[in-house]
Queue: 2 jobs
Job 1
Amino acid sequence: MSDNSNSTLNDTAKADAWIRDHRDCVKPRYRLDYHVMPPVGWMNDPNGLVYFKGQYHAFYQFYPYSSEWGPMHWGHAISDDMVHWKDAPVAMAPGSTADRDGCYSGSAVDDDGKLSLIYTGQIFDDGDIKPFNTEFSETQNLAVSEDGIHFSKYAQNPVIPAAPSDNSRNFRDPKVWKHDGRWYVVIGSSTKDNEARALLYSSADLREWKFESVIAHSEGKIGEMWECPDFFSLDGKDVLLFSPVGMEPEGLKYHNVFQTGYLVGDFDYASGKLQHGEFEEVDRGHDFYASQTFEAADGRRICMAWMNMWQTPMPEQADGWAGAMTVPRELHAVDGQVRMTPIKELESLRGPVIADVAAPLSNDQVLAAPKENRCEVLFSADVPADGNSKIGVSLDIGTDHDVSFTYDAALGRLTLDRGGEDGVRAYDCGKLEKLDLHIYIDRSSMEVFVNDGLATFTSRMYPATAATIKAVAPASGLNGKVRVYALNAMR
Ligand code: FRU
């Protein structure tokens, strides 16, 4: 199932017809239910997340014609509540002069009733459309829609034709917002010396842009290129959230191919600089990348990310699709840290309670066996006073290794272990007296929120059977309680 022919270029109608004809060929084995994912084919980054005229729009990097990355289109899904999503027609296909080889990541804003997409146009020098082909040029472009469904690319694209002269070729993933009546955009880039940085431009009309400043840069420590930067105010602080490429593992940190994290500080529009603290990863699991945030109707700052990682195995590719977004998460800045918790709207998915278990929990005690591996787990326990217990949950998914999420009191360490090669991700959160886990499971994904967002772990997993969820507890038992909800099917 693959069509690379040039006739696909700039043709959203052809992409929609392909999807109609091929969506039933996708195998259900690892399909998710309440997560945004492509109807068929490949997806990576969330793009253009926005609330527009009473609905939520989620666009994404999309190649409908194969379950591998290819010339990037913008897929599109729409929701009234950020939980129930419906596929919309493909919003953009590549092939115009400025985006010949791909419509790369970008963002969306409501420009006085017009849904406006600002995205990167990709052109490879040799026309060879491959991931990690390093000979390319990138510009920023605009597309506009009156109805939020059909988009016209701006005739005078690109709107930002070139990066500053000391820039490398990397110049992509524009994220736009409005401040004091003026548009601002932050763009991911690096210098010719591979110093990663976030560039700031401003505009009165989204069409003519002026370079302002370098908001922040790697200082030789935070990778060699920043993808998908996002910049916003949160609880009185300013946050730069981005995905650095090129960081090496350091202790328990930075074990994914690329990372996603943030700098928290204070931004001064006059100088264009962010005074900030240290870089922190925002999620500690295997599969969280290229996050983007937006403001919900009531002003909450919501984040979604690609729930996969570049250059890692994606078993669903054998089934005609690849990639999903995380559930939407509400962000808060607490003590210099960005915390994520699942949005409250997800509670509307709750079906019957399939486990309601109170103390004492014993090790390996079966808690629930959700049908189709789709459930929400609320686990709460006192960390035993002996100071050396391991507590949490495990999932028997019929593979040769259980998936588990535990807190090791002796080490003060949270660990997600999904088995297999490179199965462990861990974070030293320090001493806890209580462990609260809020876990969303959706067949091939697990999103764990610890103690109200103190830490978050997001990983894909590939079950052979529906999961049996068990307690991990010391021999003396665990003072805790667990409630598991089956979640209603949406698809
Ligand atoms: C991040 C990224 C972006 C780029 C897009 C291409 O995952 O590499 O920098 O715009 O994916 O699909």
Job 2
Amino acid sequence: MESVEKIYDNGFKAVHGINLEVEDGEFMVLVGPSGCAKSTTLRMIAGLEDISAGSISIDGKVVNDVLPKDRELAMVFQNYALYPHMTVEENMAFSLKMRKLPKDEIKEKVDRAAEILDIKELLNRKPKQLSGGQRQRVAVGRAIVRDPKVFLFDEPLSNLDAKLRVHMRVQLSELHQKLKSTMIYVTHDQVEAMTMGDRICVMNLGKIMQVDTPLNLYNYPENKFVAAFIGSPAMNMFKATVNSDGSQSVKVADYRIDLPENKINNLEEYLGKEVYIGIRPEYINIVNDDFAESYKGKVTVLEHMGNESFVYFTSMGQELIARIQAEISHKLKPGSEFNYQVESDKIHVFDELSEVNISL
Ligand code: ADP
Ligand code: MG
């Protein structure tokens, strides 16, 4: 996609100049909050939505004016869109019949897809006789039989319950490994994005915020939006002032947080200025009372996850959250005070206005 824009008929600009290259065989996830234009972007790729500016190419060929049916893509929707009066087999065979493929070839393709998805026993059932997960697999099967150049998925797991969603997530990842096809997958769920994507395209308000591998997004977010969006619980984010006393540090309320050498690019530009500080909950460590250079926190809420706990606490006039090993958190209760340190080499610093990460 090159400089692609979308202005809807009512004048609303949904997509603001997107540039994105998806590699052959890649599993690319588009993720972002509801309304950020993930579906619009996917539908433009599919040809279901006209583009207002820019160009979209598939296999090196501009497809701006190519009809959806001639783009050789297959799309799987959240609501599955199965034909209720047809059996699973007929649903899967439908697009091939429309293309007038020979009967035995259709059968071969449907059988192969059913095999891959482990739904051979379901071929004679109607959609209403299937569970949500099975329907989802049939919808994917309908895409597989078409041997598309690219699979497009728009929140395909959103209608499933939490447990099934995790299961289907793994199944789809496995499917990608088997088929080695190019897949573009839309979700608002950053956990789905992190676990499934070879690369992730983080979007907000019709713009791309960053495209990178899951680990790079997590460790090197280029801006405040990506830092806050990726990761659960979310990164602690608060305002601070860069000290101009010659120390490499910031001031929060009456506290001082030292930053490692050269943490802020062009530090001189930021002396005395406000910035945002970001620190992930796992880089806040509870320490003994006698530990020098530690801060005091007061517990507000504890969430026990079993192996670890999320400790919500107040400190430096902020509401913060720490991710703490279960054995340590069991000594805490709401209202209790504790000492903690932050792993300062893991701190991110963002420009107050541009929100760009100035500490990478
Ligand atoms: P997402 O899939 O990320 O939730 P969408 O692509 O559905 O977001 O929508 C992006 C933005 O475009 C939203 O603000 C939405 O209200 C708007 N939008 C979607 N479809 C239309 C339309 N047909 N006409 C006008 N605005 C639309
Ligand atoms: Mg959508």
